[in-house]
Amino acid sequence: RLTPKDFSRAIERLGPLSKKWPHRWPLAENTRLRIARELYAVWVAHVFDQEAREEVYNALRESLSLPSGSAASDSAPEVSLDRSNVSIGTDVEPLVRKVSENEDRGSSVLEEYSLTSVHRRLLEFLAKCVVYNEPALLVGDTGCGKTTTVQCLARMLNRELMVYNFSDQSEAQELIGGLKPLPIDAGDLIKRWHILMDKTFSKKSNAALAAHVDKVAQKKGGAKALAIVTETCKKALAAGREEEEWKKLAQECKAATETKVMWGILEVRVRRGAATHGFANWGLAGPR
């Protein structure tokens, strides 16, 4: 059921685009196809029933005199990014990426997500909301990928994402399971840690610790390994070893592992038996 607001949204989307189209009549086929896709995206893309979506799209296609072989409305758009822009499909203007101190990390974002055709269409939908400054309401079961998809877009754009949870019925286990930390590429920091360790402490005496950090990074991920590295930095600083280099490494580890999520719940009651996380309390052998 369409409302005046739906028509208003469609006009707001088509208005800026019309300035780029040739002012001639009849409109070119590519222009009419773009109009059909925009109206479809605003009015029925959110409808679950695929047959209903196809029926509306066919009606739009016929009213705009488009051939039956026109591009499918439910096709999965291509997603790509470079140092400056993020491109999602052909109907969305490239989104400008925020300048990042670590550009190499951005290129691996797409490798951290398994984007299905559904997630690609959702990314296109969100990108259009960003371009047209529209709010977006994502509805679905827990764990279907709503927050993760928004996180993916934020990561690609190098933007900070704040997630609020206002449900007073959420249990701690649901919150922990619904917001999973993103993988951390800790390889460069761990390499620098190895160099500093060899420079500051006895390599032979700390071989077990070095091997343990590499094993943790491989088995449990970068965040766990950087937790051990951070503790090592604290011990090295307390011992007055290579203070500036260890301090800089500690700051970069903290920045890499810091969770950029703000909870909107004032109080979370953790059930008894909730899992706790920790790591081995390693000591450092003396200097060489």
UniProtKB/TrEMBL annotation:
One of its GO terms (biological process) is ribosomal large subunit assembly. The keyword Protein biosynthesis does not apply. InterPro entries: ATPase_dyneun-rel_AAA, P-loop_NTPase. One of its GO terms (molecular function) is ATP hydrolysis activity. Gene3D superfamilies: P-loop containing nucleotide triphosphate hydrolases. PANTHER family: MIDASIN, MIDASIN-RELATED. This is AAA ATPase midasin.
